[in-house]
Structure formats: structure tokens, C-alpha cells
Predict the structure of DUF3039 domain-containing protein.
Amino acid sequence: MTSGAVEAWLPKNEDKRLLKQETAGRLLTEWDLEIQRRVLQILENIRPGTPRTIEIPHPLNDAETYAVIELEISSFQEPGYTFDEAVVSIDFGSGRYNAKKQSKDDGSIGSSLQPGGHLEWQLTLRLLISLHPPEQDWERFQDEFSTYAETGYWQKRGQVLRDLVDRGELAESKPGVHKHYAHRAHIAGSLIEGTGIRAMCGVIFVAPQDYASLPLCPECHDRFEELPAL
């Protein structure tokens, strides 16, 4: 067999690129499942007024903590109605620091899974989907998210997650029901990369491709109308 014939059977650069993408995709799916399992652990042990924390490992190294999640649920009672507020804090800590030191893409699988914007957002999104979809129901301040639910919701959500974890399936994202106003400088990146942006009303959402089919968020509309005319 000639050297040319041998080279024809060797992996090409495109083959290596596809293998890298497939491997990274598999690792990220496994990471999503692990995040969901750890969210289940926290829901099964949460009590109102008592914060609980979990550590999220790096997708390439279980021994390295990528982020620490704290969940606290507080119960409130109004005349004829009770509800819970959930507050989630995400501390990326050394994971975010290491991203600055290891930001160079050297073509390896690890370089595509470096801590940073996309990986942080994937963790955040999986966390919010696991706890309380749709993600647009959560309000954000820096790395802290909060939402409200009827009393008893979190126990029911834990049962749903238990079924999903036992089947090895991921909780599905739920699309929002409104289109929102946001700064146009942020919308393009959201459309291309699928990352979340903050709307004028305060919710975090991923800009949809078919936003024209959704009704306008009333709060975004009111805040837009309050802006001074240019």
C-alpha cells in the first residue's frame, strides 16, 4: 500500500474538528445531568428559612469546583394566599478566575469547555430550568436570581426532577409568553450565542428568532413609554 493510500485513511482536520465537537457536546450533556442531580439533592433537603448549598464540579474535572450554588426559600402569607420566594445565588469563584488565565483556545476539547461566559450561562440556565421553568419568571441581580411560587411547589418540583433523574432525562426549557424590550447592543449576541439578556422589565430571556409572533410584555411597554423623547 502506498503512502498516499495510507494517508487517505487517516483522520482529516475536519474529522478531528467534528470529533472534538461531538465529545464536547457529550461532556456538556453529562454535566447538565449532573447539575440536575445536584439540584434534586438540594430540593429534597430544603426547608423554608434554611439556606442550602451545593457544589458544581467542572465538566472536565470532578475534583475541581466550578461554582457554589446557594438556595434559600422563604414563606410568606397574604390574606387568603400563601407563597414562597426562592433566591438562588451563584458563586463562580475560582472558576471565573481561572477563565482569565486559560482563555486561549489551543484547539483541544478542554479549550472549548473553559469557564467563562458561555459555560457560566449554560450552568445558570440548567439551574433555573431544573428549579422553576420558564426561565423568564426569574429576576436577576448580578449572580443572584429570585422567583415566586405557590406553597408546596418545591416539593412537587422535587418529585418531577426525581422521575427525570431516574430516567436519565433533562428537564425541558419552557419558552416565555411575551416579547421584551432590551438594549439593541445585547440582542445580536443573544440571537447568535443563545445567551440571556436583561429586559427593561427585569426578567432574563433569550432573544427568540420569531419574536414578532409573541405579544409585547406590558411592563416593558410601560417603562419604554416613560423614557424621555430623543
Observations:
- The chain has two domains: 9-168, 175-230.
- DSSP finds seven helices and seven strands in the chain.
- The longest helix spans residues 13-45.
